[in-house]
Amino acid sequence: MVFRLVLGCGTVCRQVTDRVAERDGRVLVITDDASAVETLRDESVPARHADPTDPDAIATVDQPDVLFVAGDRTDVNLATLEAARERFPDTMIVAYLGGNATAADCSRFTELADHVVDPTEALAEHALEGTASPSAEAAIELREQLTEIDGRLAVMTHDNPDPDAIASAVALVDIAESVGVDADACYFGAISHQENRAMVNLLELDLRNMAPDDPLTDYSAFALVDHSRPGVNDQLPPDLHVDVVIDHHPPRGPVPGEFVDLRQGAGATSTVLTEYLEHFDLAFDPRTATALLYGIRVDTSDFTREVSPADFRAASVLSPYVDDSTLRQIEQPSLEGETLETIARAIKNRIERESVAVASVGRIGNRDALPQAADQLLAMKGIETTLVFGFDDEMVYLSARSRAADVDLGETLRDAFDRIGSAGGHADMAGAQLEIGILGSADDEEEVESIVSIVEEVITNRFFEALETRPGIPVGAYTQTSEWLFTQHGEPDGESI
Fold it and tell me: Residue 108 — pLDDT band, cuts 50, 70, 90?
């Protein structure tokens, strides 16, 4: 019977623990995380609460056939690895490098471990055994669809694109041009997040910022990346004929398109585009490779959120072509004063109920400050779910974050706001936007502020109610407020509040 010993149980390598526990044989996990021990025991996985860096913790453990060093921190994992190799000189050891390894650390890990798992090089496949990739038939179908295009292709991201959307659009342009199709990476809205702007500027990515009144007649074909329906989180006509759709989000309705690849198992759309670049046998442009790796890292929160073996493998493929110096510059831009002010207002204005915090930050000039504020609230002690929202002209933008296992934010926001706006996202990261047409009819600033105050109450109550009562949304606390808005300013058209 094979005996597998796991020392440490970090976020990235938890899936390794899960896979190991599913195998035949005996497994033991030793970690200093008491909550992880409790969770593992609840799942019938043998676990022991002890410091894996302490030689005494493994002094009485039988020699394992395979040993995994699976914490998150490089220094802790190195100390664990050294103690494990001393205790078990002949055991095969798979060691996770951690997120802040120096060249000396890498050398030491390589010296002591039989296999080193590095998220930036995706050697995790040694432990996870197996990756997902699109079939050869899918790549052939995409090629056929692209070669049928007679004219110019617009590769559209969602509004105000994030790194995953930007990188995916640039990569699909590379693929289209490789088969003789002229293409542009296009977006509506603005790229205002400082890291996203740094990515575009430092990599000199060629993007077209579309205005709402720009004619679409410049293009004879359209592709959607990182979203799947025209008119939903983009400013395209809802009935637009779409030639290609490539996304990793769960669809919110029927997905139009001649070629559709919805890879919900992937952590990022950039992962899917990396695989297609491979299938098309294209040389990786360093700018595109750097953008794709950054897109994967952002969407998986540095390989800790909804990560899949395919994401690790894509990172491994991209790694040799990435401009590491530029990537470091992208990840460390200066934080603008407006963003800091938004975060401060979110902290000051927050409403807490149990482990949930909701905050209105009032008027905003940069909607990309909202997810950063939501992240900051999530870092507060005792908070597991956050919603931050702000007003820009006649729109309200919402950003939500959660680390609670029993919360699906995408479904929660859809339950709360889909009937009065547009909402969606992942279980732990989601957003929404609502139109407040009634602001345009307000006569003075005092009336505007009164309406804003009521809208804040509506949004807050809807969110709390949706969290408590999914899948149904009861009327409850916000009914009279909503009715007042509708009767005073006219019935909404389904897209306004």
Answer: very high
- DSSP category for residue 496: B
Lowest mean pLDDT among 11-25, 83-97, 330-344: 11-25
What type of residue sits at position 366? N
Per DSSP, the three-state class of 132 is coil
Q: How many CB atoms lie within 10 A of CB 207?
A: 18
- Tokens standing for residue 473: 């949304």
Q: Are 147 and 179 in contact (CB under 8 A)?
A: yes
Helices and strands (H, E) in the chain, number of each type? 17, 18
Cα–Cα nearest to 395, from 156, 159, 193, 157:
159
Q: Is cis: bond before 471, omega within 30 of 0?
A: yes
Token representation of residue 281: 């046998």
**Structure tokens given for 9:** 């149980």
Q: Return the structure tokens found at 486.
A: 């509708």
Q: Where are the domains of the chain?
A: 3-128, 136-331, 337-489
Determine the topology of domain 337-489 in CATH. Answer: Diaminopimelate Epimerase; Chain A, domain 1 (3.10.310)
Same fold, 3-128 and 136-331: no
Which class would CATH give 136-331? alpha beta
pTM of the model: 0.53
CATH topology of domain 3-128: Rossmann fold (3.40.50)
Q: Are strands 153-156 and 259-262 parallel, antiparallel or unpaired?
A: unpaired
